[in-house]
Design brief:
Layout: H1 3-17, H2 24-31, H3 35-39, H4 45-57, H5 70-87, H6 89-97, H7 103-118, H8 123-146, H9 160-166, H10 168-173, H11 182-204
Helix pairs in contact: 1-4, 4-7, 5-7, 5-8, 5-11, 6-8, 7-8, 8-11
Length: 205
């Protein structure tokens, strides 16, 4: 038994059955041990959840500033973050509102800010662009993993027939809201965002 084995088993359980299924009793069943054995490694569930946040972030690789051109480093980090979210969609809703103040979270923030600082941005600008990139990545990932299409619905939703006859613009655009277009939509939005950061960088020189 180890912290890593427990965290991996917990994440696998959440991936398979959702966050509501995670309890020390159920995790003990998965691992073939008593729940008390888990408490030897994690004093309470909050510590276990922190470990899962770190486990996820380990998959969101941030290239070091010296590994390439700064804009490409940001682009790779963004795609890695999205891939992480899509790999663990049932945990991401929790992850999205968890402060990144775990060891891996602090390292992730430091990595993104480091790319921006190495590019020549001030501390203020680096902090601002980090937050703006974070807004986009978190919102996009929430929408794809647990967002609009999976959220609460009106008690009496507007019918497709009504939309087709009274809201023609929405009806025409509706096919492009489907999952097969998520990748292209994400990339378009990301490039719009990065273009704005690039223009700000050009003003520095």
């Amino acid at each position: 038994m180890s912290r890593e084995r427990i965290a991996l088993a917990a994440m696998a359980l959440v991936d398979r059955e959702g966050l509501a299924a995670l309890s020390t009793r159920r995790l003990g069943e998965e691992l073939g041990c008593e729940a008390m054995s888990i408490y030897h490694h994690f004093p309470n569930k909050a510590h276990l959840m922190d470990a899962l946040v770190d486990l996820m972030l380990a998959e969101a690789r941030v290239p070091a500033a010296h590994e390439g051109e700064w804009l490409e480093c940001l682009r790779k980090a963004a795609h890695s973050f999205r891939a992480m979210a899509l790999k663990h969609p049932k945990f991401f809703a929790f992850f999205a509102v968890h402060r990144l103040n775990t060891p891996s979270g602090v390292a992730f923030i430091n990595g993104i800010i480091g790319i921006l600082r190495e590019a020549g941005f001030s501390n203020r600008d680096a902090a601002q662009y980090f937050r703006e990139i974070g807004y986009y990545l978190t919102g996009a990932a929430l929408d794809e993993t647990a967002g609009y299409a999976k959220g609460p619905s009106a008690a009496v939703p507007v019918s497709n027939e009504t939309i087709a006859t009274r809201f023609p613009h929405l009806a025409a655009a509706a096919p492009f809201f489907q999952p097969e277009h998520f990748q292209g939509t994400f990339e378009t939005g990301l490039e719009m965002l990065l273009e704005g950061v690039k223009l700000a960088h050009e003003r520095l020189s």
